[in-house]
Amino acid sequence: MYEKSTQGRAIRLVFKSVIASLMLVVFAYPSVLPAQEWDIEVLDNGKRFWDMTDRSFVVDAYGHPHIAYGRDWLYYSWHDGVEWHYEVADSSFYVGAYASLVLDATGAPHICYFDGANGDLKYAYKDGMGWHIETVDTQQAGWSTSIVLDEMGDPHISYAKWITVGSGYDARNYVDDLKYAHRVDSGWHLQTIDTDGYVGLYTSIDLDCSGLPHISYYDYTNNDLKYAYWDGMEWQIESVDVDGYVGRYSSLALDDSDSPHISYYDCTNRALKYTYRDGATWHMETLDTVLAGWYTSLALDETGSPKIAYATWFSPSNYYDEVDDLKYAWKDAGGWQIETIHEGPGIGRHTSLFLDTTGYPHVSYTNAYGDLYHAFRDEAGWQIQTVDRERNAGRHASMALDNNDNTHVSYEDYYGLRYSIREDQVSNSQRVDETSHIRYTSIALDSFGTPHISFHAPYPNEALKYAYHDESGWHVETVDPCYGYSTSIALDSGEVPHISYYRAYPDQDLKYARLDETGWQIQTVDSEGDVGSYTSLAIDACGSPHISYYDDTNDDLKYAFLDETGWQIQTVDSEGDVGQYCSLDLDSNGLAHICYYNATSTDLKYARMLTSALPGRTMDVAALGLPSQMAVLEIWPNPARDVIHSRLVQPEGQNAIRLTLFDLLGRRIMRLEQPHAARSEARITFRLPDTIPAGQYFVRFEGDGSGQCVPVTIVR
Question: Which of 78, 129, 407, 708 has an alpha carbon 20 to 30 Å from 666's alpha carbon atom?
Fold first, then answer.
């Protein structure tokens, strides 16, 4: 929990700025929310792409590159000759691995790919209406896909099926069969080609002049390169190379005579190999023996001469090989020629090669960090473009801006808690606390711009602490002697500090602390499992706390708020591992807006609260029964001009009812106190002074130990 919560505090600043641009004005009761719903969307998808195939890349008739890739979503990028364009072809959860791309006669993309969430083979194509998605095979299928179109534009796909062996933590996935899918007017036709052992990885497909499929693939059981083709009646299967451990990263192309050419990796000799069939005879060549041959991709030029892109690597230890360089091999009259396209650690993964109409090669590939590149050769040599890259969150201290846009930052260094303020382009840094290894700082400013900071101090004893500054200097006090991780601090309209935090040990609970005249009052908000990290706290105009946080037990985003009946807890999002790095803010009507991280798909997501409760809503008193706390039944007119009428129920034995009008900044405008009425139902009229300007306000109804806050609009 330590590392995650540190990052949660770090990214909070970024999320706050995103939320600020998304505030909505929705009329609702902020404290009594009878029908909450959440609208959830992805703001920024930190792309994840891996397991690209040797056919992930295509060059169109104009020489412009197109690439399909993904793992969290399926992405499609293409270049128009001036700039790159990016599209999401399929935004379903955890799709896009093993993407294979082909363009039809009109230049429209067709992609086969793996649905990791459901274990399916999927197919996407684009036309004038947009993207269309189909599920081809649902029987644990879709690894190592490869696609090609016939003359009618119908797709043919080779792919691997797998089996799961074991259960629970002992479960393992093993490639089982080589499969083939072909779509015609009547739908998808599926065939199993090879079931002899664990077969089907590294598939590559092409069609001959008669439209019949040919496939190269790897036999994992025997460590052989295999080749299958349909002769019109049945599948013919051959073992092409059985000399040692050979056949991974195969890439197939057929020449004008329908003879197959295959590039692949020789694991025994750590070499790039190439084979082609002349009649009934396979000819094999070893092209590069300098630790070469991963991620091969092969294409044939107009003369049938092979061109191959592939990766080399280095071995920093006896236990680990790392991709190192991207290389290119081609054959001319003088034999095989080899050159290096791109050097660097991690360069050369997931290569895909295509030749444009002038015969120049284009290669797409990634590095170890998931950056996607496009390299192409012209008269001047190899040109390299960065196409797309994953976006990762950085770490930041907790920061706040005062009314003059001065920057206030709380942060930790090795020797303790520090605070910095930047005014008039000059920064001033101060030491707040001398305890070393401070963690989880959070800062809030009061109306005077004075800083208030919550933080975790590990020495001499674990404690959640609070620091504030006044004219005499810094003051530090202990809030809770515990492992008070993932703190978040906010001030109410009376400048009173509130702190949410994760009590990591021994409780693993979400906690909330509020300072009053007797000291810090601490409550347990949620104790169901391991909950409470990445807390983010906001106080509404009526002084009620709202907290977003992460449920580590269930990997969910949760939200809690305090009303008259106690803490109300909701699960906001449970799709995948969601809720880390969450940041909460409230709009002008007290509705929650949350930004957070989807760890499964590395997305930045945004959730906003919706509600069906509207001002002026009438409740049935009889349906409530005997009230134990005050409840506002009706308030009218709303919008109001001169007077506000209200109807409410109250418990027996109550002494008085207080009404307070607040503006959106939480400032008290006026107060009215009424004696207790004999009936359980009370009607109170609230006359508005002429000096109050038009705008949005809140009325706080308070009794003995209970209350409710309702938004009102004043017009003039």
Answer: 407
